[in-house]
Specification:
With about 270 residues, this protein is α+β, with helices and mostly antiparallel strands. The chain is about 40% helix and about 25% strand. It is built from five helices and 16 strands. A hairpin with a 2-residue loop joins strand 11 and strand 12. It is rod-shaped, with a radius of gyration of 40 Å. The termini are far apart.
Length: about 270
């Protein structure tokens, strides 16, 4: 593994971003920091790319990548260069990758100390690499903001990945530059795993809050319905009581009239 947290972060993030990006393709493998043996019978003839992408082989658990077994060399390789690895990344590894037929080779320096600009790309032309040219550019916007605020970055287009690779300044001492991936087809930045986790946690929190609010509203609706039922039942009882009282009054009046009539008849007979 690389010797610093920014290198480790970039290796893991790049692997996970590209795995997620290519998850719908059955015959593509994205691996990181894995020994790649390129000549059978010669175990010392090996390299360990930081991240490599191979079309034509499935994604699966591997202890190592043996070229004579897989039958396909990587088409895209990333190296996150450092003080200890820069000479190898620009010398031995570059020569091996060209000989293996790796189409696109990218180097990124998160500190900006060993590569200027911090992103460099090579395209295979025949059996040799040609370094691609770059110019500082303002990155595309995302949710109304530039990918890194308003600072300029450096861009390379990967024809294999169909993504733009951006080296963006962060303004932070512990990791001055960040490698980001941009999809020009959808005009969206690909979220890194940390960002995706934060968004997932935010979504889960919002879903929990929405569920709690829905439960509260449901309880309130049930309470309101129960109160309405009780009130309606009370109104019905009161109406029934009034009807019964009115009926009793009517009966009593009728009894009184009958009694008066009997009294009147009795008086008439007496006279």
């Amino acid at each position: 593994m690389a010797e610093s947290n920014p290198h480790i972060t970039h290796i893991i993030n790049t692997r996970e971003i590209l795995r997620h990006r290519l998850r719908a393709e059955k015959m593509v493998s994205v691996d990181a920091d894995m020994l790649l043996f390129f000549q059978k019978g010669f175990p010392k003839r090996r390299v360990a790319p930081d991240v490599f992408v191979v079309w034509g082989v499935p994604q699966k658990r591997r202890r190592s990548f043996k070229l004579w077994i897989e039958g396909q060399a990587p088409q895209v390789i990333f190296e996150f260069t450092s003080r200890e690895t820069q000479d190898e990344d620009l010398g031995t590894k570059r020569a091996i990758y060209a000989r293996l037929g790796v189409e696109e080779y990218y180097l990124f320096d998160p500190y900006g100390e060993y590569l200027l600009p911090p992103l460099r790309g090579y395209q295979l032309a025949g059996e040799e690499y040609v370094m691609r040219t770059m110019e500082p550019l303002l990155p595309p916007t995302f949710n109304g903001k530039n990918g890194n605020g308003s600072l300029t970055g450096w861009r390379l287009m990967s024809e294999r990945l169909k993504l733009e690779l951006w080296a963006l300044p962060t303004g932070e001492i512990d990791m001055p530059y960040l490698l980001r991936f941009y999809d020009p087809a959808t005009e969206q930045w690909l979220p890194d795993p940390g960002q995706a986790m934060v968004e997932r946690e935010l979504f889960a929190k919002q879903a929990t809050e929405a569920k709690t609010q829905a439960e509260r509203e449901s309880i309130a609706r049930r309470a309101e319905a129960e109160a309405r039922r009780i009130a309606e039942a009370r109104v019905e009882r009161e109406a029934e009581a009034r009807q019964n009282a009115e009926a009793e009054v009517t009966r009593l009046k009728a009894e009184l009239e009958k009694l008066r009539a009997k009294i009147s008849q009795h008086e008439n007979k007496s006279n």
